[in-house]
């Protein structure tokens, strides 16, 4: 698994997802622009606060 940098974003934190992966899934177009509205579900996977998370793209 590749490492991704966390970046501050006005009171929250963002993580980068490779645009080619999102393009293959139809989330962004050929120009890298979002196609419609998309949400992501982020879930903590552990009770020990070790920092394991799962991200799931959710279609509206």
Automatic annotation (TrEMBL):
Residues 3-59 form the DUF8053 domain. Pfam families: DUF8053. It comes from the Archaea. InterPro entries: DUF8053. This is DUF8053 domain-containing protein.
């Amino acid at each position: 698994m590749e490492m991704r940098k966390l970046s501050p974003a006005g009171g929250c934190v963002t993580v980068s997802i490779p645009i080619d992966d999102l393009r293959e899934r139809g989330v962004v177009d050929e120009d890298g622009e979002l196609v419609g509205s998309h949400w992501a579900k982020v879930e903590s996977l552990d009770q020990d606060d070790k920092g394991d998370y799962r991200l799931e793209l959710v279609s509206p």
